[in-house]
């Protein structure tokens, strides 16, 4: 084992005193272990508002190391009750999910392999999406629920958050594409979970071992609360809140992956997954709609939904202003472009801006992708016809290369904010709510009014077609008065979201920032089902405790990072 704890990695991180159990841990794994230095500093943060310093960061070399880590925590839990394991892949989580004051287990260093076999991808949690995507492109395949952060994120986060993205409107979310998961559970053994027919389920139920115990426990939980669980299914097309008990058993197929995907590593440690891919459509078109106010957004979304768009994405003028201000960064993200060639391509938009007497308040991207050119063009024509009736400024883009600038602005919006805003910082805490599109005319203005009443500047981006919006407040979290607004705003915003039968999170998950609202969203019976499920899989709280269920929100708020920039 390579012990990096004693390298001279910076004076600041030496404040993290070496825990008494470290020598015991160091003897159990062959991977790298750090207790101070750059890894401790980096792994104290993700893309959320929190900062929590781990006692150790471990990079297991293989599954054997993961099993050894679980066995170590299980054996020492009585003596060291706060020992736990929190999985981390790329650390782009916006909820504090991969943060812990115990042991953070990083997968990106060694557990990062992938294999493509036909249209099935086998992937380890630490593999970056950007490293896998070229192989998919070459094979003419795609993973359709890739997130906007695909240039930064890894597969562990994609799967454990049940991520979605711009194409989820047509193709759905990650849980629909996971065919098999390998997990190390609380007994230190690796198990394989995949859909089972009735005969397969009966075989599992008859087993006199830990696996049989889990299948019996989950089935019993579902049958005991069957009506309440089915009623609890969120009335939206996207949801990452809670555990998806309503998707496990339909009477024909029993699929444990439905509760493991999106569990944020609270039920076990994922070591690999088999993911189904789809054929990548050959012909892509884009309709770009420019609005001078928010009012027409719901009407446009509801008019375009029946036309079968791949995506209905949106971003606001604040994002556009950032893109203009940091134009060189945008240009570098587009292959084959420089500042001058890209500026030339914005001439049509400049002319529209002149007609509108300024920057549009909102830009909607209606994406189309089909197997044939004629199919794609016909669908684009129908979109244009629908928009003509509403007399909105628009542009039909036939060449995907001309459309790329918009996708870069949309995908990079959070990154631009996070790294380029001075004084204030991005504060994602009401960043992922979902309201059915038919309720947007009522819900969105109310949510904006709440934020305005607290004097909060925000940017808006997201997946308008599914009513999934990423509202990112810009705040000076160095001020206690600003930090104190977070629980107040969260409560008021989620009151509105849940009034319309929505979800607190469509794809970013619960973590520290939203887990406390699960009981309000689902009610006591279902929340208790979630707690029972988590306890069934992890009775000793080995895996990422205090995330999703049993969240200590007051403690989480005390861990807000006051720094303006990262």
From TrEMBL:
Molecular-function GO terms, alphabetical: D-lactate dehydrogenase (cytochrome) activity; D-lactate dehydrogenase (NAD+) activity; FAD binding
Keyword set, alphabetical order: FAD, Flavoprotein, Oxidoreductase
Source species, domain of life: Bacteria
Pfam family, one: FAD_binding_4
Domain FAD-binding PCMH-type positions: 50-280
Biological process, per Gene Ontology: lactate catabolic process
Cofactor(s) recorded in Swiss-Prot or TrEMBL: FAD
Record-linked InterPro entries: FAD-bd_oxidored_4_C (IPR004113), FAD-bd_PCMH (IPR016166), FAD-bd_PCMH-like_sf (IPR036318), FAD-bd_PCMH_sub2 (IPR016169), FAD-linked_Oxase-like_C (IPR016164), Oxid_FAD_bind_N (IPR006094)
Transmembrane segments: none
Protein known as: FAD-binding oxidoreductase
Organism classification: Bacteria, Candidatus Vogeliibacteriota
